[in-house]
Amino acid sequence: MATEAEFSSVKIYVPQGSLGVGIFPEEVEYALAWGAHAMALDAGSTDAGAAYLAKGVSKNDRGSVKRDLGFLMDAQQKAGIPLLIGTAAQAGGDMNVDWTRDIALEIAREKGWSPKIAVLYSEQTAETMKAKLTDGKITNLPPLGDLDAATLDNCLHIVALMGPEPYHKALEAGADIIIGGRTSDPAVIAAFALWKGAPAGPSWHAGKIAECGAQSTTANTGQRGVLIEIHKDGFDVQPADPKTKALVTGISAHLLYENKSPWRLTEPGGELDVTKSEYIQLTDNTVRVTGSVWDPKPYTMKLEGATGDLYQSLLIVGIADPKVLAEPEVFHDHMLMRLKERVKTSLGLAEDEFDISLRMYGYNALSGMTPPPGSRPLEIGLMGVFTAGTQELAHAIANACNPYFFHMPIRLGEELPSYGWPFTPAEVDRGPVYQFVLNHVVHIDDPLELVRMEILDVAKAPTEEKAVA
Amino acid sequence: MPKVKEVCRHVRSKVAGPFWVTIDLMFDSQENYDRYSQSPTLSAASIGEIYDVDPATVQHYPVPALQVLKISYPRRGSQGGVEERDLHSGQQYTYLIDKEL
Prior knowledge:
Number of helices of chain B: 3
Helix content of chain A: 25-40%
Structural class of chain B: alpha+beta
Strand order of the largest sheet of chain A: 13-14-10-9-1-2-3-8-4-21
Largest sheet of chain B: 4 strands, antiparallel
Distance between the termini of chain A: 38 Å
Number of helices of chain A: 13
Radius of gyration of chain A: 26 Å
Oligomer: heterodimer
Largest interface: A-B, 40 and 34 residues
Helix content of chain B: 10-25%
Radius of gyration of chain B: 13 Å
């Protein structure tokens, strides 16, 4: 690892906002001609929900990930520069990492390449985390309260967000390609620069700006890439597509995106503070950012854990009945009450053994709140969501509610309507409800303590035979 | 009184991690930012009422250099949970744009 005194500047190419969203090969060529010293990008986040962590699957399809990774591994071969990938396969659990590893090995073998591949795992066992909890090393973040051990036991997978240090270990080991588990998005981009001795403030800020690829530029899409050059007192950012531009407005606004605070960003080992950052239009398409500060803090890793211990079945009907459209609230409340009664009497369930929620699409499905007076829908798509402790029970509840979904009039005593079913059978079993249940950090002294690294020999490394997603 | 959408060039909402929602109100001029970003319509009490959350948990971040007011509040339920209606919270801004300032 280089020191800050030895550092002059470093160039990082961030090819896209998430591995597998579709790469533009001409941008890769442009970035190599520009003289990139490394390529870095993330491959996921929590945005799409807990299912990808819970199931250990990717959000992006295998063919698209293989295509994008193929272009980047080709660039790695040609230019001899490292490729760093964080949060493999959307969630960065061990299964997500292995899925991505196997694609990289498949590409290498097909092409006859033998890069040195490092794999970083940051999945945690409930036992390890329970020991940390007992030691008082886990603290909560708002709005969640204190953690109890049962919550950890209930998780299907738990990951800890890595900072740049595990990537430094892999770079020290001579890795050409690093496939990382769950990692802070800015960390994977900042890692190579920090390893080369770049100052921390600009490195982390550049990492944040580039995490969505070119989204902060006029390209305005995470499919496109950006080029960042970090120097002694700041960094420059430009799009990897010379037809588009980085502008002060877009770059300075990017810290707002998907972030609670526009000024400070808490990361493993410190906090990025951009309150004094200055942005200037360096050239027609390049913005220079200076004044970004890194405020070191005791080392913490954020924890993510996914549960899947509840199950849902659905019923969906279309309603154009004028009586219902005139009083959707009345209909909603009557129906919900009668469905709950039906489940209690027909299945003998207690109130706390199931949940029913009705979503009136075309009326208030998204908010669940009462629309302004006078709102009149043209038609309502009514989705019933039936939740219980097993799939069988959720299905049985939906089954019991089927007649009401089909025929319930807005008021008792009126002639029975027949609402519009889109398919048969009517019940849709949608599987587990995957939820994030951790919003906590684990305090550690050594950034590598909770991370495992493997260096693969491409010729010998086994791959797990898995169905193509 | 103008509506939010009449003094903002863009309003957007998004999850900020699985437990928070953040709304960015991008005003269309310095004048409108100065005049309306402190409006009671955008206060913690009002946001709490519109989104059915505890006003004490609503956070305001004025960003004068960008003429942006950023408002963050905790989600009512865990992302993707039993009562989920908007996983990415991408549509939550819509309940604000017609409010009068």
